Prior knowledge:
The structure is a single chain. The chain is an alpha+beta fold. It is built from twelve helices and six strands.
Amino acid sequence: MTDTRVELPETDALAEExxxxxxxxxxxxxxxxxxxxxATDPGLxxxxxxxxxxxxxxxxxxxxxxxxxxxxxxxxxxxxxxRYLPVYVFxxxxxxxxxxxxxxxxxxxxxxxxxxxxxRQMALHRAAHGAGGLPAPWWLRLHFRGELYQLGRLQFQRxxxxxxxxxxxxxxxxxxxxxxxxxxxxxxxxxxxxxxxACDRSLARAGAFFARSxxxxxxxxxxxxxxxxxxxxxxxxxxxxxxRSFQDRFRVLTDRTEIADKYPxxxxxxxPELPWDTLxxxxxxxxxxGDHLRAGGHWYGGxxxxxxxxxxxx
Length: 314
């Protein structure tokens, strides 16, 4: 693991960084109060430098970097210094990821919007637990290692086809298979409706972005692994709905062996532990998720792919 010396910004500069990263104002106050301790406590500095070294090791390499440390579990019971340590790891890594973005000609607006997911994740933690922290530091490793980018409505992760999806792609007659580059799509829930037009614009931006910034990785396929691709949704939603239109882009492999009930409850209602009989029925999607569970059904993941526009794949 790389042992990286870190220099934290001074208080004023750190405040500006946190604003640019969309950090909630309550968290900014607490993070600034911890800055001196993070910068001067020898034990914390060693922990911080070790974690940053592992994060930026092999920057930009798909699935690279060292194994992340075991941060405090999400919640409000841990001490502030433990809850905010992963945030400081990402703050200390900013010079490395920004240097990589410059090297790869990542536009400044793409860089800023990609890294601002840090603040959005902090807001989710505060909404769920009433205290500062991060719910899933492992997720943000993708952003801060140059593996994931926000391009309009969708996020795109540089990845490679696994054995089973790659074999399915090859058996469908496409000249791609296991180990070949693929862009994994992720769907943030903070950017409004998942309209076909917004998706088209994102996909067009992705084609131009990755051809310019990662020309050595010929991306011809997009893929997604999500409960949104569960074919059962089609039985509840109108044919013209945004989710049905999103599903129609994909050639889907559905796995009915692993139940994924908590994912739609979390992403639609905000809390995976909500009792099913209390789930609201305000929208077609809320009714679909809740009614299906209340009727004794289960939700599953779906794995799908499609050729990217301009790839000339069939």
